Structure formats: structure tokens, C-alpha cells
Amino acid sequence: MKVRTFWGSILIIILSYIGNYLFFESKQLAAPLFLDHYYETSINIEGDNHLPFYYLANKSDFSTVSHVDINGETFYPLSTQYFNMWDTNTPQYEQEFTHHYLKAVTLSIPSVNIQDNIPFEFSNMIVHFSDGKTIQADIGNVILHKSNPKPQVLETRYSGSSNQHRETKSFITLQPITIEDITVPFPEEIADEVLVKVDLNQERLSELEELMTGAEPPNWLTEGRDKKWSSLPGVLIHDELFPFSLKQSEWILLLMKYNPTRNSYFTFSVKIIGKTESGEPFILEAPISDAPSLDQKKINNIIKTKKSGENE
Question: Could you give the count of Cα atoms lying within 13 Å of 206 in the half-sphere of its Cβ?
């Protein structure tokens, strides 16, 4: 009887080990999985420009990105261009999850690769790893273009953000203008991920002028960081707001909210489109940047969604 019990226990241990191993294997990625990035930015015409991309890899995967091919051109990670005396076998990662690491690779994009008036745009790239594997990665949508001279129509006076995926930017007019539209890029992909309000209350906004002399932010500004989005002042840009005119030295405040449950990375500009009193058109860019808050549940959903897309 004791022998039978002994072997029964051994069998249970073996089956448990096999079950755990099969479960572990089911959670492993066949190849690194890149997240979605929505980047639209003007590049520096002098020197290189650095773009970070984030991907998931198995904890047992110690490979690194050696280079990538984009639109027929080859680009290299920033870290491989310089000697690193601290290079070890210790895994480098941004965030740790149960079976995976969130890793980052920062690509160096020389300005010579960007032509005048022709954006450098891509939604996928061929990624080559140090262990010899190569994947075609869907990375969202990236648009790079050379910067244009900034129009002297608005001057930034305040910019702030919160841990609630919100951002605030205020401007003062340098001359009389008419604002005809305010737009967010990638309308088909992230239309529901970004909300923008416009506040034109001149009496309240003029208090921001004191920030230029080192004063503390007004109470309404700091208290607004903890208020619900629906209770904040301003009109959504999708409402009937445009066009509207501003005199010289008048204020405009943009309030941006990014979907806190999304899984994508943002680096782009909200564009303020209008014309001066003399009829000269202008486009002013208000840069924003925001990263998703990731947890294990979101990681599981990302893997499930990405794998489903690969099988279609």
C-alpha cells in the first residue's frame, strides 16, 4: 500500500511538472512583439534624431536589436554606436511582467534621410536581432518631416502634465489672429484616444502671466489636475468652435486628455491652424508626449490582439 502511495505521489509530481511546463511554454512568444507607436515629429536638421520603440520579449531572450530596415534604408540603435564598458549579460528592460520583459530600442535617424517637403513615413520595419532572427514588426504609424520656421503668432507661456494622462498648454497671441482649426494627427487610428478642449476665458487665463515672474500657479490650475475631465472648463475641438478670433495679447489654453487604458505610445503635435490679420496662413505645433500605463492584464491583451492580427 505504501509503495502504491509512493508511486502515486511521484506520478502526481510528474504530471504537475508537465502541466506547469506546458503552461509556461504556452505563454512564450515565438518572436519579440512590438507595441504600437504614433509618432509625428519634426526632426533636427543638424545631427541625428532618436526615436524609441518598445517591444515585448521572453525573459529567456537575451538578444538585442542589431539594426532595422525601414523603407529600404538601414538604421542602427543608438546604444550600438558607442562603446559601452558596462555591457553585461544582465537583461536590460523597461518593465517586468510574469513571463516577459518590456524592452526599448532607440533608433538613430540621420537628418539626411529626410527630404524637404516629403515626409518619411512608415508603419512597419524589418528588425534584425543579435541572435540572428529577423522579424517584420508592425509598429503603429510614424511620420517624420523636416522642421519649418515657427510662425511668430503665438508664444507658449505655460506647459504642464499630470499622472492622469493629461496635459495643459497655454499661449498668448503676439498679433491679432483667427484660428480656423485645431487638429490631432492619425484621426483614423487614435480618434477616440485623444480629447482636446479649448479655454478662452481671458480674465482667468491672464493670471498665468504671473508665472513668468516666478509666482505659484493659480489655484484653479492646480486644483484642475484632480478634477474630472467633464468638469474642466473649455470647449471640445469637435464641437462648433471654429473659427474664432483673438486680439493681440489674448490667451488660449489647450487641455489634452489621453485614454489611460490604451496600449500605444504618443509623440506628436496638436496643430493650431489659422491666419493672421493680414491673411497670412500659419500652422503652429504644440508638441505632446505620453506613454501608456501597462499592467499584466494589458500585456495579455496586447499579446492576444497582436497574435490574432498576425494570423489574419
Answer: 6
Lookup: cell for 137: 514588426
In a domain, 229, yes or no: yes
Asked if residue 88 has pLDDT above 70, the reply is: no
Same structural domain, 163 and 272: yes
Q: Are 252 and 200 in contact (CB under 8 A)?
A: yes
Domain-embedded: residue 16 = no
Residue 76 phi/psi, 5-degree rounding, is: -120, 150
Name, in order, each residue with C-beta under 8 angstroms of 290's C-beta and a sequence gap of 6 or more. Answer: 161, 165, 167, 258, 265, 266
pLDDT at 1 over 90: no
Return the C-alpha cell found at 208: 498665468
- In tens, the pLDDT along 61-86 reads 999 999 999 999 999 998 644 444 44
User: Is pLDDT at 57 greater than 60 in this prediction?
Assistant: yes
Q: Pairing mode, if any, of strands 251-258 and 194-199?
A: antiparallel
Tell which wins on pLDDT, 10 or 298. 298
Number of domains composing the chain: 2
Mark which of 147, 167, 190 sits at the end of a domain: 147
- Size (the chain), residues: 312
Residues 219 and 279 in one domain: yes
C-alpha to C-alpha distances, 5 to 15, 16, 105, nearest whole angstrom: 15, 16, 54
Q: Same structural domain for residues 246 and 158?
A: yes
Give the residue numbers spanning the domain of 233.
154-290
- pLDDT of res. 83: 40
**H or E stretch covering 57:** strand 48-58
Q: How far apart are CA 209 and CA 230, in angstroms?
A: 26
**Alpha-carbon distances of 14 from 24, 149, 199, 221, rounded to whole Å:** 15, 69, 66, 62
9-17: average pLDDT: 64
Residue the block writes with cell 496586447 = 302
| pLDDT value of position 219 | 85
